[in-house]
């Protein structure tokens, strides 16, 4: 069965500092990995995905993530955090096209000015 | 980019009534759509997979007679919460796969906040 772990309920960083939101996954085959962001009472906004190719994936709003197969991780990163990045972040995985995404529990990112 | 429109954005209903939520893919065909439920500050829990022209596949623990799903066309899936109770209050989100892009990309609606009073 597929699963996603986001070990941190909350991440706090100061504006301008780098941020990392952690994600590890478990799938039976090759993973399709995604990051989404959610603002209060809103749907999900797509940030980036890894399906194949370069392990470093660049996405929206300056975010990037690195696929690490040996550590089964897909951590989300940004070199310089903004206060407006404060939101709930979800990592998600599927093991093949056409199936539903399985989400992690989410990590609340709080960026202070 | 592909757009998924979910309607209504929020709804308040009385206990015992039924509520229908629509999920439309506006500029692509979606043979497969998914319905999720999200409790406050929690993750999205998959409720069911909706396939155009066939019965939905429900996840374990989800009452299919309570959460009726219909996917009658390639651009529309509906979720009807029947005989709603306060415990059904939640945020419901749909997702659609773009059939012409190999079903690799999932697009999400903006969600529906259901409050049952």
Structural write-up:
The complex is a heterodimer of chains A (113) and B (117). Chain A contains no helices and twelve strands. With 113 residues, chain A is mainly beta. In chain A, the strands form three sheets. In chain A, strands 2, 5, 6, 10, 11 and 12 form a six-stranded mixed sheet that branches. A four-stranded antiparallel sheet of chain A has the order 3-9-8-7, with no helix packed on it. In chain A, strands 1-4 form a two-stranded antiparallel ribbon. In chain A, strand 7 and strand 8 form a beta hairpin. By secondary structure, chain B is an all-beta fold. Chain B has strands spanning 4-7, 10-13, 19-25, 32-38, 44-51, 57-58, 67-73, 76-81, 90-97, 106-108, 112-116. The mean pLDDT of chain B is 92.
Keywords:
heterodimer; A: 113 residues; mainly beta; 6-stranded mixed β-sheet; 4-stranded antiparallel β-sheet; B: 117 residues; 0% helix
Task: Please mark out the parts of chain A with pLDDT under 50 across 5 or more consecutive residues, or reply none.
Answer: none
Largest interface (CB within 8 Å) is between: A-B, 22 and 25 residues
Rg of chain A, Cα atoms, Å: 13 Å
Largest sheet of chain B: 7 strands, mixed
Topology, element by element:
The complex is a heterodimer of chains A (113) and B (117).
Chain A: E1 3-5, E2 10-14, E3 19-21, E4 24-26, E5 32-38, E6 44-50, E7 56-58, E8 64-68, E9 73-78, E10 87-94, E11 102-103, E12 107-112
Chain B: E1 4-7, E2 10-13, E3 19-25, E4 32-38, E5 44-51, E6 57-58, E7 67-73, E8 76-81, E9 90-97, E10 106-108, E11 112-116
Parallel strand pairs in B: 2-11
Antiparallel strand pairs in B: 1-3, 3-8, 4-5, 4-9, 5-6, 7-8, 9-10, 9-11
